[in-house]
Design a protein that fits this description.
heterodimer; A: mainly alpha; B: 5 helices; 2% strand
Chain lengths: 206, 138
Amino acid sequence: MIKDFLRHLFPRAVLQRDLTLSYTLCLGGLAFTSLMLLAASGALLLFHYQPTPAAAYPSILLLESSVWGGRYLRSLHRLASHLFLVLIVLHTLRVILTGAYQKPRQLNWLVGCALLLLAVFEGYTGYLLPMDQLALWATQTGMELLHIMPLGGALRAVLVPDGVGEPASLLRFYVLHILMVPGALLFLSGLHFYRIRKNKGVLPYL
Amino acid sequence: MKRGYLKSSPHFFRLIKIALAVTVVAVMLLAALVPAPLQDQANLARVPNPVKSAWFLLWIQELVSYSKYLIYLVLALAACFLALPWLSRSAPPQHACWFPRESRGITRAALLSCVLVLSLTLLAMFCRGANWQFVSPF
């Protein structure tokens, strides 16, 4: 079934000259691969992480000291998240520099922009979870940046009802990080792929 | 099969599989070499100096350190990028190519924005010390 789904995701035939890597550099596909790595490593981290201010940091310490491969798993998740952001930015830049955002692909351009924004938000919500000094103060600074934006105060109140790193805000960041944002990322990625097919292929003018 | 076309399976799929395998192996190897940092437990009473945001937001922090109104520059930039398909007045290029002649202005603006974001990120990351004072990275 998966094989059939993948076959439907891609065109049946492609132009031979478009199979050159120098056009897309596979950046979008690699970004999606990083997302899959993030989902896999993140799912394993869920078995050990405890989303309360008192237990979050000790659960990371326990993961790193007592769980076989725990330290490696956390490094993998962190590295994949950095790579995901870098690749999605480079993919966006590639789309601009090759003019692939132009009509009739304007809807997919908007979907791609939403994916980029969600990727940044996913990275931001994940930053707080270890609850170490780096996590707390980086998140606090991010909130200050949000606060100076128009409507930022209202958004901040929704995200952090009781202060950065307090029980309600940590729980919200956790739910957003493991459920809401990844769900939206997967849905929009599906829509992104579907629109590529509708716009006649991975590369323009197949 | 029309002339110049190949079946996606196996030609296109082979490329995708190779790219996927190389990425996964490279990240898994790198993860073994670069451990994730873990500082002391979060403590609101101990404020580090300087306080820095996540690396992907550092460019905004650097920008608003000059004036908080520069946040509107970030928002304007985001709005321009969102509206790109409607800003371009030229007809879409007939063939896929890098740096199409018809969109020279947008290409330059995009590259300039990238250089700006990268420079601000590096500046905030390596050249900002206590009280956000400029320090030499060396």
